[in-house]
Amino acid sequence: MNWYLARDDEVSKRFAYAVDDAMNRILDNPDRFPLVCGNFRGCRITKFPYQIIYRFGKDFLRIQAVAHLSRRLGYWKKRR
Fold first, then answer.
1. What is d(CA 12, CA 66) in angstroms, rounded to the nearest whole number?
2. Within 10 Å of residue 38's Cβ, how many Cβ atoms?
3. Which of 38, 60, 30 is nearest to 52 (CA)?
4. Is residue 74 part of a domain?
5. How does pLDDT run across 18-61, given as a tens digit for each residue?
6. Which site among 5, 10, 21, 24 is 20 to 30 Å from 59 CA-CA?
7. What is this structure's pTM?
8. Is residue 30 part of a domain?
């Protein structure tokens, strides 16, 4: 988001809204999105080249990364 903010305030706002929308879609139904790498799922961020990478269980949902779609799949796996 900082990258967008440094370039265009309006685009950064649209990105923030798109991330919020994606998060709400994930929270509504975490099973809805496909597995992208191991037990991690990915939800595309509408109109931006990113996806939210996450995993969940009975009592948790963990966001692993907001990953750019052109990056190598799994580059975010070692993050804590």
1. 14
2. 9
3. 30
4. no
5. 999 999 999 999 999 999 999 999 999 999 999 999 999 999 99
6. 21
7. 0.85
8. yes
